[in-house]
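2024-03-11 09:14:02 DEBUG pipeline.ingest accepted 1 chain
2024-03-11 09:14:02 DEBUG pipeline.ingest length=926
2024-03-11 09:14:03 DEBUG pipeline.predict start
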Amino acid sequence: MFKPTNLLVCTLILLGVFVRGQDVPAKMEFDSIPLKSAILQLEKSSGYQFFFLDDWVNNKYVNGTFDADSLSTILDQLLNETELNYFVRDSEKRIFLQQNSLVYDELPFGFVDETDSLQLAEQQNRINQNIPPPSFYDVPKSEGKRRYPPVRIGKTDRDNLRSFYNLSGQILNARTGEAIPDLAIQIKGSNRVAVTDEQGNYQIQIPAGYNLLTTSAMGIEGTEREVIMYNDGRLNLRLKEGLEELDEVVVEADAVSNVVDSQTGTEQIDAEESKNIPLVLGERNILEVAKALPGISSAGEGATGLNVRGGKTDQNLVLLDDAVIYNPTHFFGIFQALNPFTTERVNIYKGSVPMEFGGRLSSVFDIETKNGNVEKLSGEGSIGPVTGNLALEIPLKKEASSVIVGARGAYADWILRSLDDESLNNSQASFFDGILKYHHKFNENSEVRGTAYFSRDDFSITSDSLYNYSNRLFSTRWAHRLGEKTNGVLTAGNSDYRFGIDFDGEGNRDFELDYAINETELRYKLNTRLNDKHSFDYGFSGKFYSVNPGSIEPAGSESDIQNIEIARERAVEGALFLGDEIKLSDKLLVNLGVRYAFFAALGDGTQRTYEEGFPRNESTVRDTITYDSGEVIETYGGPEARVSARYLFTPDFSIKASFNNSYQFLHTLTNNTTVSPIDTWKLSDLNIEPQTGYQAALGLYRNFNDNMYEASIEGYYKRMQNVLDFKTGANLFLNENVETEILQGDGKAYGVEFLLKKNRGDFNGWLSYTYSRSLYRFDSPFSSERINNGEFFPSNFDKPHDVSLIANYRLTRRFSFSMNFVYQTGRPVTYPIGTFRFNNADFVAFSERNQFRIPDFYRLDLGINIEGNHKKNKLAHSFVTIQVYNVLGRNNPYSVFFVTENGEVRALQSSIFAIPVPSITYNFKF
């Protein structure tokens, strides 16, 4: 709208009236004809002359049939779906079209100095009905040349005048066409902020009239858009990538969302930003980078699996494009099983977990694959001392569909053969993984993607055994808009993990051993933005598990091994969820949700029951129950609360709190200190109950200096029930009655996490510190099922102090330096504390479980990154990374164990990388 300060506009207002009774005598039919043609027909039939700009009516088509209808009725219908209003000067038979705005036939109260009684009465009537007067304003003059023209949203409706209107839309990446999640949209000069969801959708309430909207997100060029609000409407944007941000190596969530979001304990790592962080053998590894964030660690160097906030490794749900990946690592955790050039990012939830996820107690690692380039063929690759990687992005339909394909493989055998250890001369270690993703965007309301992934490891450290394990998954995802306020995401996936051992030794003991777990999931999530106060998430998910607990069969006709096959396990798991994000004010945001989880173990199979009040063993078996195929063996489940809240003290300073509880129906069976590739997964059944737990968290979050610096401190407390441990010397694999070897007890964990980041500049990086404790208790009336007299003791991964420092310095545009320093308290260990003789034999007496600790861990890694020249017209852009892992040559113990030689007990330690490990990697991109 504009301020009516000239005589012409005032004259129009005083003389104009709306057409109400003028009928158009001829019958008129419009069948998808241009609006301009329809207006010209109206001119001819009605005798009224229309005034408008061609740009206002171009590319607009109309439909309708009218028979002697009034001109106002025809215009109302023809212009209903446009941003056009109309004003009539009946005395001159002229009709003026207005874009977005209205010409008013009355002046707003106070526009002139004179006070009119009728005007006062009208003003009082508006106040009584809570109707704001029409808004007249000046559009501020832009300083310098505008980059984008002002955008007009909606059209004025005199019967629906409001002080605020709703603006919604979708934000897409201009290069790839994919949605941009976690992008902040803010009204400049106010506290009104909205953040896009995973489909790039947003909704924000904006004052009527002129506003300046700013957008900001990591890796996306920040923009300012002038928006003039006349009514509710949509604004879709395609934003460019911020190329200068891609040079940064900071693991950075969105610059504003860390403060504005209501979720606690969330982190985001972009694969591109991890390229300069020095890691072992020059391999990019976002899961290894995750360990440098507070609250995330592992049991030791080279250990498979992550421990999040005092939880076990099996308490993490790891997803690759919505499908579960059971072992996302290669070669005992030294390398990740994810191609760094096809991986977009990983979102980590260690506090507030989104409602659509469940089945784990500690965390969710939601790994996303890139969408391929829809504009041109592009690719990226690397050649290192151990692996070679390649990824290609292939457009299929410009701006609509693409394929990205990635493959990587290892050639590590030469390293094992070059080591000064004869026992490793015949060893081998190799792996490969491949991924294919198809993405198609039908329109702004619908897109689909499908992912296929496979990885395999083969290794033999001894000459008689060949180990192998593999991951295979498929997933599809359809994101669609069901209406102006509702979006839906339908996902389906299948995951398969298996391992095997081929033994070929001396004698007649050759065998082949296999294990497999398979799951299929269907999930549907809906989001409805009811208004500016409420945003609902709701839906359902269902899973079907099929587990082969293990089988062994003789290899060759001369083998004496007996064939054993444990009965297959099956189960279904489901959930219904509903949540509401409630905006109580500009400062207070609350998320309330409930998720009902359900699990049923299914036949066919047999289950034992045991005498109550006695330990579980062969002598206390009461009965054996047989179940038919599909018959329910046992059910578990219950409600899960998901509650979180955020209060903004200022736009860059907030406090957050959360509480959630969860069920876990799946367990790993291992009596190793750390998880290994040949650990098995076990479903809950009649004798093994699901793990349960809850977590509460509270934190402060602050950004400084225009989001250049980010600081947070967060505390948490967690309790767990029915966590698993095992009796000393337990036989877990190929055991039909494994429940006799299992103990279930309680756990608790608590800690404080501190994070300080510098997100921009030639010198950037982050410092994280975690103080945490992880304790477990296994109590029972029976000594055989009790550990440490039923008292709490430190878990195998309890490390009270954990410090990580990542620093990067860009000397020039081509040369940069990076550093990674880690310090951790040594993990717990059980030591022998004495010897005794019994029946003329020597025995060792051990301490309480995990009473002592191995030496503290620390490591320094350094790297130099050399970029190629930055000429635009090159076949490929390249850079070289030179890194030294463990520069100080620290002999960090991986484990400490004890042997008896000549009647004496000796302590020995094993280490993974006890010397500096240099590497050089060539990277290229085209």
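2024-03-11 09:14:41 DEBUG pipeline.report The longest helix spans residues 35-46.
2024-03-11 09:14:41 DEBUG pipeline.predict end
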